[in-house]
Amino acid sequence: MRPLASLLLAAGCLLGVPALADPTVTLCFERQEVLPWRTLDGHGLDFELLGEAARRTGVRFEYRAMPWKRCLAQLAANEVDGAFAASFSQERTALGAYPGGDKADPARRLHMDRYVLVRRKGSAIDWDGHEFRHVEGRIGVQLGYSVAAFLRARQLPVDEGSQKADELAQKLLAGRLEAAAFGGGDAVRLLRGPLGQQLEVLPEPLVEQAYYLMLSHGFAAANPKLAERIWDAIGAARASPAHARRERSAVQSERR
Q1: Residue 7 — φ and ψ, nearest 5°?
Q2: What is the pLDDT of residues 149-176, one digit of tens each?
Q3: What is the rounded CA–CA span in Å between residue 102 and residue 92?
Q4: Domain 113-208: which topology?
Q5: Mutual orientation of helices 184-192 and 165-173 as an angle, nearest 10°?
Q6: What residue stretches are annotated with the Solute-binding protein family 3/N-terminal domain (predicted)?
Q7: Which H or E run contains 141?
Q8: How many helices (H) and strands (E) in the chain?
Q9: 201-234 residue pLDDT tens
């Protein structure tokens, strides 16, 4: 019988990705702060969870910040071992693996967050949680964000020409967009900043969903047990009373 290490190495070579030879796992994330989940200098609740998962599993995570579209492309090409924080969509299962497979397991998520609709003050566009009204132009979405599919499913014109939340807000204020869909943390930050006097957030969220650590198909195939241990460790750490208290406090603070 061939040793397990040789079997894993052979499986990795068939995929074009070597089996894990050391405890370093490379993860990419979007080069943008999204509070309270992450900051560019490695703080926030997602980094706390990943740090705890690393301690529990004995791996070391190496982080790479980049535009989100590139992060997903590198995940699909097995150029990184994982990407976070990604909401679930069936289309993305072709890019990488979720905990739970084709039906992501919310018990092993990193966090829950929402998308909200932001409009210029005085604009007539509206969303009541069920339907849109008075849509006279395009709705902006950051490039690669899953909320674009939510809007297109409702036959709405979508603009994905912005990579950063601030760019999207500027296009909205310039009248090039009717409204824009922002993640909850981005919306709060914008309204607290210099643009906040000219914008408003509609009270009903567009969608609320779980966000996950995705692992590349190459990594998950070459290291299936380790992949499950990492996802299990994230779920266990997130469910701990201490983390639940920190998350509740941080989310409440951000939404005030």
Answers
A1: -65, -45
A2: 999 999 999 999 898 888 999 999 999 9
A3: 10
A4: D-Maltodextrin-Binding Protein; domain 2 (3.40.190)
A5: 60
A6: 24-251
A7: strand 139-142
A8: 9, 11
A9: 999 999 999 999 999 999 999 999 999 999 999 9
Question: Quick count: other Cβ atoms within 10 Å of Cβ 19?
Answer: 21
Residue 254: band (very low, low, confident or very high) from pLDDT cuts 50, 70, 90: low
The DSSP output letter for 20 is: P
**Hey, what CATH topology would domain 4-111+210-255 get?**
D-Maltodextrin-Binding Protein; domain 2 (3.40.190)
Amino acid, single-letter form, for residue 117? L
Cα 75 from Cα 72, distance rounded (Å)? 5
Please state the separation of Cα 209 from the chain's center in Å: 10
Q: Are 102 and 120 in contact (CB under 8 A)?
A: no
What integer best gives the mean pLDDT of the chain? 89
Domain boundaries defined on the chain:
4-111+210-255, 113-208
Residue type, 234: I
